[in-house]
Design goal:
- By secondary structure, the protein is α+β, with helices and mostly antiparallel strands.
- It has one domain.
- Helix content is 29%, strand content 44%.
- Strands 1-2-3-4-5-6 form a 6-stranded antiparallel beta sheet, with helices on one face. Strands 7, 8, 9, 10, 11 and 12 form a 6-stranded antiparallel beta sheet that branches.
- Helix 3 crosses helix 4.
- The two termini are 38 Å apart.
């Protein structure tokens, strides 16, 4: 009788473990269908942060990330606001005017390799690719920088000033390429992401790589 109980208990634990893995995989699939291609990871890696008056050449910047909304102030060295860029759940504004952005998505990419989390216990979804695009013709370095900071808040300000400086006067169109995938195990929800910047389709900077996790 005791042997029978041990067998039943062992089988029950095995079933529970398989069930957890199935639920985790279903969770990944559901979240991938509901969450914007780079939205969740943006919230996960850069929520509720304030970067105040970092000096970047001849201007300073303040970037505020709060509840999914990103606000960027580019200021002159005397504190005068030069440009304000706002990314409000994908709606982009510069100095109160809406900026048209084009988004191209390719939801299933299999050939990209993992660069962060290796454990085989993680149930990964497929790589997804999206490309954000906006016109930069006639914009100043500070304006381009503010837009880049609002569109990709997970990228460091020092990297973005290099990109903006390379763009101004040289390129009329900017593309931000984003590769991302989501995964989960019994405990955590994960993401991995690569970000690359282009000017008129030519490579400028990257990849900027980041990854993260949080409890299920």
């Amino acid at each position: 009788m005791e042997k029978y109980r041990r067998i039943v208990l062992k089988e029950s634990k095995s079933i529970m473990k398989r069930t957890k893995k199935i639920i985790s995989l279903l969770l990944v699939v559901c979240l991938m269908s509901l969450i914007p291609i780079n939205g969740y990871a943006s919230d996960l890696s850069s929520s509720n942060q304030v970067f105040t008056d970092d000096v970047l050449g001849d201007f300073t910047v303040e970037r505020i990330i709060e509840n999914g909304k990103v606000t960027v102030y580019a200021k002159s060295l005397d504190g005068t606001i030069l440009h304000t860029a706002i990314n409000d759940n994908g709606n982009l504004f510069l100095d109160g005017e809406i900026i048209n952005t084009q988004i191209v998505s390719s939801p299933y990419i299999n050939e990209k390799l993992s660069f962060g989390y290796i454990p085989l216990s993680i149930n990964w979804g497929q790589w997804q690719y999206s490309e954000l695009e906006f016109d930069s013709d006639g914009m100043t370095t500070a304006a381009i920088f503010a837009i880049l900071s609002a569109l990709s808040p997970w990228v460091s300000l020092s990297a973005l000033i290099d990109v903006a400086s390379a763009i101004v006067g040289n390129y009329d169109n900017v593309q931000i390429g984003i590769w991302i995938r989501y995964g989960s195990d019994d405990t955590y929800f994960y993401y991995e992401r690569d970000t690359i910047f282009y000017g008129d389709g030519s490579y400028l900077y990257g990849p900027v790589r980041d990854s993260g996790r949080e409890f299920l």
